[in-house]
Every structure is written in structure tokens, then in C-alpha cells.
UniProtKB/TrEMBL annotation:
Keywords recorded for this protein, A-Z: Amino-acid biosynthesis, Aromatic amino acid biosynthesis, Oxidoreductase
Molecular function via GO: NADP binding; shikimate 3-dehydrogenase (NADP+) activity
InterPro entries, per the entry: Aminoacid_DH-like_N_sf, NAD(P)-bd_dom_sf, Shikimate_DH-bd_N, Shikimate_DH_fam
Designated name of the protein: Shikimate dehydrogenase
GO BP: aromatic amino acid family biosynthetic process; chorismate biosynthetic process; shikimate metabolic process
Originating species: Muriicola soli
Occurrences of domain Shikimate dehydrogenase substrate binding N-terminal (ranges): 12-94
Any one cellular-component term (Gene Ontology): cytosol
Gene3D superfamilies named among the record's database cross-references: Leucine Dehydrogenase, chain A, domain 1, NAD(P)-binding Rossmann-like Domain
Amino acid sequence: MEKTEKKHRYGLLGRDISYSFSKGYFTDFFKKEGLLHCSYENFDLRDITDLETLLKEEQDLRGLNVTIPYKQDILPYLHRIDPEASEIGAVNTVKFTKTGLEGYNTDAYGFQESIKPLLTNSSHKHALILGTGGASLAIAYSLQKMGIQFVKVSRNPGEGQWSYQDLSKEEIEKHTLIINCTPLGTFPRIEEKPDIPYNYIGPEHILYDLVYNPDKTAFLLAGEKQGAAICNGSSMLKFQADRSWQIWQN
């Protein structure tokens, strides 16, 4: 009798994630690679405390990706956190091992790989990070690693952060890399965008949006109208997803 290959299940942990890229990406990847024993599904949790029930009910999980709003909330549930993820302060990849759950961050890698082709000259030395959530932590870590100075912008700024009202013509012209780490503009609320003075943006700017649905958010369209280079989060997602898969297999 032919031995049945054991099922390997993976998934995405988040809230309101029916729009997500990950399920389709991994499902296509498994099909292309002939990994018929692998599957990927969404786990839409109302609250992070529901994770305990999920772990009891889903005994054959091998790995999870973690998205908004649980990249920081997941930390107390992990038995081990990779040093880089610990330094970032957020986890987007969980590996199931015999000794417990291990947390990693592949967002930083995904961002660095996806933005490299855009940084064709040395003029982009100052960046604005719009938003202060879990996704912004990996971006801040990456920029620091790349030698790019940054300021975080928030509706409720903390110490060392700016409010949107602080974004003068001078500051916009100085900070030629602007990264949206907020969910503003995500489908279906595609008309929303961060409240920055887009009229001060020019051809020397790069606008990068972690949002990938739609392809061109209102944020990116406003930048493109001013002549800026634009990039959405789809390539970052592919890079981070591929790195997640490597972690799960090692």
C-alpha cells in the first residue's frame, strides 16, 4: 500500500484578512512546486486571545504568517524569538517546532530587497515613516541598517515623532523617501490616504506604500501626479513570503 504523505498546513493570522495576498500566493506556489501535501489558509481572529483556541484545534500547523494587528501582540505566545525579530520588536513569521513556537521577522528583509532597485543614487538619505504600528518597526530597522535617517509621523505623536501638521514644505523637500505604513487606502476604502502636503512632492521623491490592494493607492497616485517614483507593497510581500518558506523548511 502506498504511504500517504503527511499534510503540512500553513496560514495567515490577522483580523479582517479576506483581501490578503498570502493565501493565493502560497496556494499557487504549492501547486507549481507539486507540493500537494501543503495547504495555506486564513485564520481571521477577532482577538489575539483566540490564538490559544486555534492552536488547540489546529494541531497539524507547521507555520504562520502574522499581519495587522497582531505583529506585536503575538510576542507573549512565543517560546523563542529570533534576535533580529527581537530587535525589531515585531514578528510576522511563526515556526512550529517540537519545543514550541518560534518567532521571526521577514518584513525587514522583504522591504530592503524591494526598495534596493529604487535607490539608484545617494540623494535619498532622509525618510518619513507614516504610521507607528507593527509594520513600521521593520521599516525603521531596515532604514537604520541602510544608513537612511528617518522620522516617524503619527496622528498621536510620541517622543521623537512628528505630527502630520509638522510636515512643512522644507521637511517634505528634505525627506525624499516617504513610506506609508498605515492601512489607509486599502481596498475597499481606496479613496483614503495619509494627510501630507502632496503639492511639495517632486520628481526627486520616492513614495513607497506597504499597501498592495489596489496596485496604485490614493497615496501613490498623488505622488505619481507630482512626478515621484512609486512602489507598492507587492514585491516586499513576495520577498518576505519566500523568506518565511525558507524558515519553515529549515
